[in-house]
User: Fold this.
Amino acid sequence: MKGHHKGRWAQAKMVAVTLLLLGLAACASPFRAEVTRFQSQLPPPAGQTFAVVASNPSLAGGIEFNQYASLVAQQLAAQGYTPIQDSKQAELLVLFDYGVDNGRERVRSTGFGPGPLFTPWYGYGPYHYWGPYRRGLWSYGWYDPWMGGPEIEAYVVYTSFVDLKIDRRADGFRLFEGRAEAVSRSNNLSYLVPNLIEAMFTGFPGNSGETVRISIAPEDKKQR
Assistant:
C-alpha cells in the first residue's frame, strides 16, 4: 500500500505542476482585440487641441475614468494633437467610454485522463465517467487527478470594450468612430482598458470601415 500512496502523491504533484505551467503560459499570452474604425474628414494631426470627455454621464468626473482618459490623451498627443482641459475651448471633442459585461460560462472537454487509477471512492479500476458535465468539488473547472475519463473544464469569459468618438466641437460633426473589443477570462478593467486603448491606437486611424485583429505583447515582454 505504501507504493500505491507514493504513486498517488506523485500523480497529484505532476498534475499540480502541469496546472501551474498552464497558468504561467496563459499569463504570457498576448492580449488580442478586434478593432473597427470609421472616419470622415478627420484632419491630419497638426497640433489641433482636443479634450477627452465621458460619453457615459455615469463615468464623468470619476478617478478611474480620468486615469483611462489620460491614456487616451497620451495616445492622441503622440499622434500630433494637443490636449487641453477645457472642453469648451477644444477644437476636437473626444468622447470616450469603456466597460465589461457580466460574463458567460463555457464548458469544454480537454481530452482524457491517464487511465485506471486508484481512488478512495472506487479503488483501482477502469475509467470512471461522470457524464459530459457535472458541478462538484472535482468536476467544476477541474479534473480529478485520481479518476480517469474526460477532463472537463468550465470557465467564464468576459467581453470588454472601448468606444472612441471624435467630434468637431464647432459644429458637432462626427470625424471618427472606433470600437475595440476583447473576449478574455479577465473582467479586471485596470488590465483590460489600457490594452484596449493601445489596440485602438495601433495603426490609428486605420482604414475606414475595416475591422482588424490586434495583438498586444504580454506585459513582461513590453518591458524588455
About this structure: Residues 12-27, 115-143 have pLDDT under 50 and may be disordered. The radius of gyration is 25 Å. Helices lie at 2-27, 63-79, 189-200, 219-222.
